[in-house]
Amino acid sequence: MTTTNPSKATALRTHTCGELNASHAGQTVTLAGWNDVKRNHGGVLFINLRDLYGVTQVVAGPESPVFKTAEEAKSEYVLRVTGKVTLRPGTNANKNMPTGEIEIEASEITVLNPSQPLPFELSEHAGVSEETRLKYRFLDLRMPRMARNMVLRSRLSQVVRNYLYGLDFNEVETPLLTRSTPEGARDFVVPSRNKAGEFYALPQSPQQFKQVLMMSGMDRYFQLARNFRDEELRSDRQPEHTQIDMEMSFVNEQDVARVVEGLMKAVFAHIGDEISAPFPELEYSDVMLKYGIDKPDLRYALEIKDCSEIFKTSGFKVFSETLAGGGVVRAIKGEKAAAFSRGDMDKLTDLVKSRGAKGLVWLRFKEGKWESPTLKFMTEPELSGLKTLLDVNEGDAVFLAADKPEVAAPCLGALRLELIARLKPAPAKKWAFLWVRHFPLLEKDAESGAWTFTHNPFTAPLPGEEGKLDTDPGNVLSCQYDLVLNGVELGSGSVRNHSRPMQEKIFGLMGYDKEQVQRRFGMIVNAMDFGAPPHGGIGIGYDRLIGIICGTDSIRDVIAFPKTTSGSCLMSEAPSILDEKQLKELHLKITED
């Protein structure tokens, strides 16, 4: 008797390779998939037939009419197999796999398509270079780990949509062909064939369009938005990426946080993990003081401490001169780091110097005594105060930086990450979420020296901070918030400006006159003139979220067809050269440098 699974049954199969079990014994079924592994045991052939859903063992004895076909089938041949489901005898059953209690006695095997010899084995531990994997991505995606990543990504996108639909969000697509606006990275541009010399830009984010949707009365918007940024690439960056983009009207920061926290709870519940909310939150200034980085990994307790009070009368000139000049002395403890060699200490010193520090002071606490090249410059009360402040125990080491706050913080932040990598402390939890709030609204551009936005130009000042825009713009706090997970900036958002005068004031501080504002941002500032509601939102990096959940260091492992760090697609060989006819149609000419 043949039964079918109506959800996946097709003209070529009755079941998938992952759904048969002991309850199907005696049934005649048809499967289709790839020849994953073939073994010959005493003249009996065993084929592991694989598809996206799993693996089923197929058996062909030497007397079987399908034996010759099975014998000739090579790795990755596409096969269609018909046969009877039988129970595996005795100890041959494999309780660790869903189909491990059964096998198929093949009565018919059809080769649907042969395969050329593979450029690499489809093994989880094949040791293949990433370049080769990306060139043959269609093979790479057949590997179980990669297939699981793609399926999980698909399923979680459904979780996201269902959750947001349940909160009355509306999924609205925003344009992929828009105009170039300054949003922090270089634009990818598309030449217009109909308007010679004019260009579209691919969106770095749907920022202006989603705000205009709020001004259009849409109230709650989301989309899994495609974003494009022409920036230097690395393991967690791609020229095109996906974010869970959302915007809400009549909200404050906490309203946005509650929606996002509920979304994260739904996502992690799908993978069987329960997370608690509300998430911890810290002010940006506190985060930089405690961790030296605005995306700290709170699975680890290492904190930076300010020691300026301890050394305020220090005879150590490195400390006293720094403090007299308005600087700070800050320290971090490395548990059991006293075992580091002098060479290790030199490497850590080089690390902070590469971040702009003048140097690094270190002390070891071994056998109840301090050891350090600078020990002679410190007094007993200073050492005692340091030991108490940092809770120093036997075998610990202390690292101190004396510099301006804006230098000491990131230097010790980098050192903290290095200590975590070297010491490998046990994480306190599996998933460590954190809200970082109230970043500075503006900062000085390193090249021009002019004011620029720290996150995006549409962020509103924190209520009560508006007055400082005229007197102290560099110290205006904003309604900007970041969501951090395990030391990764997962999302970034803010409550936005919704009045034109405030938005134009901020643009003015950034050096834009009214004509430039109208030319570059006319769409959004014009909409502010006609009853724009208070609104706010966030963009959550979907690729990064899936990468963290899958435990991969590279988001290329959770994107079906990613680019290399040079921006190339090795499979499609993009980017490529246009022929002269195409260039002429686009009014373009390639010139030599």
List the main descriptive attributes of the protein structure presented here.
OB fold (Dihydrolipoamide Acetyltransferase, E2P), five-stranded mixed beta barrel, alpha+beta, 22 strands, BirA Bifunctional Protein, domain 2, Gyrase A, domain 2, eight-stranded mixed beta sheet, single chain, 593 residues
Secondary structure layout plus pairing:
Layout: E1 28-41, E2 44-51, E3 54-60, H1 67-72, E4 78-87, E5 102-113, H2 130-135, H3 137-140, H4 144-166, E6 170-171, E7 189-191, E8 199-201, H5 207-215, E9 220-228, E10 240-249, H6 253-270, E11 281-283, H7 284-291, E12 304-306, H8 317-324, E13 328-334, H9 342-354, E14 361-366, E15 369-371, H10 380-390, E16 397-403, H11 405-423, E17 433-437, E18 442-444, E19 451-453, H12 468-471, E20 480-485, E21 488-495, H13 500-509, H14 514-528, E22 535-541, H15 542-550, H16 580-585
Helix pairs in contact: 4-6, 5-14, 7-11, 9-11, 13-14
Task: Summarize the structure in words.
The strands form five sheets. Strands 6-9-10-22-21-20-17-11 form an eight-stranded mixed sheet, sandwiched between helices. It has a five-stranded mixed beta barrel with strand order 1-2-3-5-4. The mean pLDDT is 94. Helix content is 28%, strand content 23%. The protein folds into three domains: 92 residues, OB fold (Dihydrolipoamide Acetyltransferase, E2P); 237 residues, BirA Bifunctional Protein, domain 2, CATH 3.30.930.10; 127 residues, Gyrase A, domain 2, CATH 3.30.1360. The chain is α+β, with helices and mostly antiparallel strands and 593 residues long.
